Amino acid sequence: MAKIYFVVGGEYADTSFTIIAPGHAEERFGPFDEQEAHICWRALTGKSVDNAMVRYFIRSTEEVSDETWYVVGGEYADTTFQTIAPGRRQEVHGPFTRKDAMEKWRELTGKTVDSAMTRFDLCTDTELKRRQS
Q1: Cα 5 to Cα 75, 100, 126, distances in angstroms
Q2: CATH number at residue 10
Q3: What confidence tens digit (pLDDT) does each residue in 32-86 have?
Q4: The pairing of beta strand 91-96 with beta strand 118-124
Q5: How far apart, in Å, are the Cα atoms of 26 and each of 22, 35, 47?
Q6: Structural domain harbouring 44
Q7: In a shared domain, residues 56 and 82
């Protein structure tokens, strides 16, 4: 089955683009196939190019669903990011909604931006179970 896409966004409260500005609602366009979503996104971003507080994102149905999300990672042994560094444990934060997981990811990556060996990823409950097996 082909993925279905939506274009979501609008005017945000700040440039973290996580909270819609007071008095505004999140806009949602679609459903689209991938190409149509990109066309819609280009049109919307072209109209709002002069407003730094407006941003739109292309999301698949998987990203806008009610799935449970986690932020997983930590300090790794090397830049393949496959094996956690000796003496460290993989960190698992969550469960979250996708929006809250993204906020936590931004928080963690902001704190570790100077560590080239630290990485965090978003994953669903299904992916987390697969990673842990």
Answers
A1: 33, 20, 21
A2: 3.30.70.2400
A3: 999 999 999 999 999 999 999 999 999 887 655 557 888 899 999 998 888 999 9
A4: unpaired
A5: 11, 22, 16
A6: 5-60
A7: no
